[in-house]
Amino acid sequence: RKARSRKHGLTNPPPGPWQLPVIGSLHHLVGALPHRAMRDLALRHGPLMLLRMGELPVVVASSAEAAREVMKTHDVAFATRPGTHTFATLASDSLGIVLAPHGEHWRQVRKLCVNELLSARRVRSFRGSREAEAYSLVASLASASLVSEAPVNVSPLISTFVADAVMSAVVGDRIGNRDAFLEGLNEGLQVAVGFSLPDLFPSSRLARALSGTARRVDAVVRKMVRLMDGVIEEKRARSAAGGDGDDQDLLNVLLRIHADGGPLDMGTIRAVIRDLFGAGSESSSTTIQWAMAELMRNPAALRRAQAEVRGALAGQSRVSEDALPELRYVQLVIKETLRLHAPLPLLLPRECREPCRVLGYDVPQGAMVLVNAWAIGRDTATWGPDAEEFRPERFEEAAAVDFRGADFEFVPFGAGRRMCPGISFGLAVMELALASLLFHFDWELPGGAGELDMAEALASRDHRKQEVRLVAARHRACSCRPATS
Ligand code: HEM
Prior knowledge:
Elements: H1 2-7, H2 34-45, E1 48-53, E2 56-61, H3 64-73, H4 85-90, H5 104-117, H6 120-125, H7 127-147, E3 152-153, H8 154-171, H9 178-192, H10 197-200, H11 205-210, H12 212-240, H13 250-259, H14 266-297, H15 299-312, H16 328-340, E4 350-351, E5 356-358, E6 361-363, E7 368-371, H17 373-377, H18 380-383, H19 394-397, H20 423-440, E8 441-444, E9 469-474
Parallel strand pairs: 2-7
Antiparallel strand pairs: 1-2, 3-9, 4-7, 5-6, 8-9
Helix pairs in contact: 7-8, 7-20, 8-14, 9-12, 9-14, 14-16, 14-20, 15-16
Bound molecules: protoporphyrin IX containing FE.
């Protein structure tokens, strides 16, 4: 290890597990979810660890203190995304925000996202369309539960709700080729969170030639460009026909800035829209599914959340966002879900831009840096011996701990300059969905009892392996109409 470290100019590199020639530490990650395998390695090697994935040095921060050093103390040094082959190919068409390296382009687009596209005021302005989509979700569930008494697969209905809520905010309506678009996006996400051979062996032409993933990324990019152009064209045609009025959907805002000679070319607009869909849909949808699954396993929490929602909305026929600020316990349920099931368990990768000292160790320039938010959320040193249990009440006791970037023991949205700018948007979607599901239906596990499978899929995101299948009975006060189509 010493010889290797000297070669990379490190006097005191972070510790890590033993490495094999060529593949480095990869064999330690085989057969387990990366965030779980990395947590287990960190328990042996410490909160800052150096792995080698093929040729790529990867530093993993697994404690609140290590996360603070990466995302606060040395935030500027770690504020860029890695230039891996996969990221470079995904961004080859044009750069939006998520994959953009730290620099002037990212600064401008980030400012636009924070101040214009994802501000609390803008998020509030989409409230009407969100409420309409939530009601569609309820109507679809009512139809599904009318058709048979068999358990309903809630997962795709939740995914559709989130996709439509994001879509109506971003492009003002459901788009024509919505399913193809979502499929393309999903493929893009899958390749974005994995590693391809050329990522791990960037100096090898053979790796590039052999890599099926690299070809898949290329195909996904071409498909997304075609679909995004279709979305923008559809939008322009609608505007030209006078069908858009004064709509303030995000694509309109971007097109207006472009038309006024602002700093946005059409490629950037396309990439920003793609990034908002990509970053916003899957993460919120997965969290709602986990929240429902956890509530079903914790009947006392389910009863308390349901009583709160029905109390706050007594006498009303559907959920309006006016009630959301009153739903303190539902908010805690979402917090606790994000603690246990951060949808991006390793956040999004960063890259070390200059040699840097973290917790007394040298981090090499060019290393990929991962923060294991999932492990930090379950660290018994912070959360106590019941860290693995779902107990929303813990946030009543520790009211100060929040996910807005100041508390490094709880970082599902990251922190610092690259922190998620979509928190208000995500929370509005998740709170509305959960409140609607709890208000309109009584829920039971299939067969009345039993364990819900909480297994996770083999992916770096904290996906559920099994979809959530539950028995939904309309609450007696529910006046929702089943969907007609
Ligand atoms: C449960 C919901 C969500 C979670 C847990 C989440 C989490 C994250 C995380 C961990 C990052 C990377 C932070 C880092 O590098 O430190 C991120 C970045 C980002 N998120 Fe979210 N997100 C959520 C919802 C949303 C929504 C709804 C939107 C927008 C509609 C959004 C837009 C973005 C964007 C644009 C970035 C890239 C920021 C940058 O690179 O500067 N996110 N998100």
